[in-house]
Amino acid sequence: MGARVWTDFEIRGVRYATTADAARALGVSTENVRLMLRRGRADKIGLGPSAKAMPIRIRGVDYPNARAAAKEFGVTPGAIWKALNDGRIDQIGLPQRYGVSRAMPITISGITFSSHAAADRALGFSPGYIAHAKKLGRHSALWKAVHAAVRLKRERDAEDAAAAAAEKKRVGEIEVDALPVDTRFEAALSFQRQLTGLSRHAILGRCRKAVLVRARHMVWFRAWRAGMSVSEISACTGRAEETVSSVLSRLEASGKTKRRAA
């Protein structure tokens, strides 16, 4: 590993692009500038051995020099000067959040993750798996990630569908309980429940199972034969009048056909 190249650093409030610029301005050699920067003593460059050290202020607290500040926070004087040059001196001694600023969202099979690390966790891979596969162009590993994302999407869609179905059922039960009551309709419903053993909510709900649809329509038909109008049945069931009328017409025609056949 080669020697570090110092660029864009600060000495006593003045920024220098290179060590050569600092050496020319302060009347010392570039080797001296690099040595003092490496030792964390940039404040003494070009001042001679009798110069006073530059005080350091960190989060409102003043320290006589970089060495004193470094001792307080358990870091090196070079770390103090680097933080000062980078404009983050007040972050010295605070917990570091590694990689947060570099995190980039990634989308796989329609699912967007906040970062590669988040994708690794959600898809069950070890840390760095997806980023490493992308960097090296390993298509087989990337395909594994794609298939894992497809499985995850299916699981999430199934969970969402189940939640939606449960909510729909809950809302449907509330609607059934809120329907207006007519004694003729309740008599037809009670008869159908005794005949089939089905619950009120099952018959009046929205399920499209054949046995429930048949029971539902027979309740409408018996209520209509008991003297209820299409609009009254529509109000008691929460269905459109056109739907009720169509069902009743079909059942009436079916009954006439059976009587003729008999």
Write up what this structure looks like.
The chain has 262 residues and is mostly helical. The protein folds into 3 domains: 7-91, no CATH class; 106-162, no CATH class; 179-261, Chromosomal Replication Initiator Protein Dnaa, Chain: A. The protein has 12 helices and 6 strands. The strands form 3 sheets. Strands 1-2 form a two-stranded antiparallel sheet. Strands 3-4 form a two-stranded antiparallel ribbon. α1 crosses α2 (30-38). The chain is rod-shaped and about 115 Å long. Mean pLDDT is 79; it is low at 170-177.
Termini separation comes to 102 Å
Shape: rod-shaped
* Assembly category: single chain
Task: Give the helix/strand class.
Answer: mainly alpha
Q: What strand order characterises the main sheet? A: 1-2
Keywords:
single chain, 262 residues, mainly alpha, Chromosomal Replication Initiator Protein Dnaa, Chain: A, 3 domains, two-stranded antiparallel sheet, 6 strands, rod-shaped
Describe the SSE topology.
Elements: E1 7-11, E2 14-18, H1 19-26, H2 30-38, E3 56-58, E4 61-63, H3 66-73, H4 77-85, E5 106-108, E6 111-113, H5 116-123, H6 129-136, H7 139-177, H8 183-196, H9 200-204, H10 210-225, H11 230-237, H12 241-261
Antiparallel strand pairs: 1-2, 3-4, 5-6
Helix pairs in contact: 1-2, 3-4, 6-7, 8-10, 10-12, 11-12
A few lines on this structure:
The protein is mainly alpha-helical. Helices cover about 60% and strands about 10% of the residues.
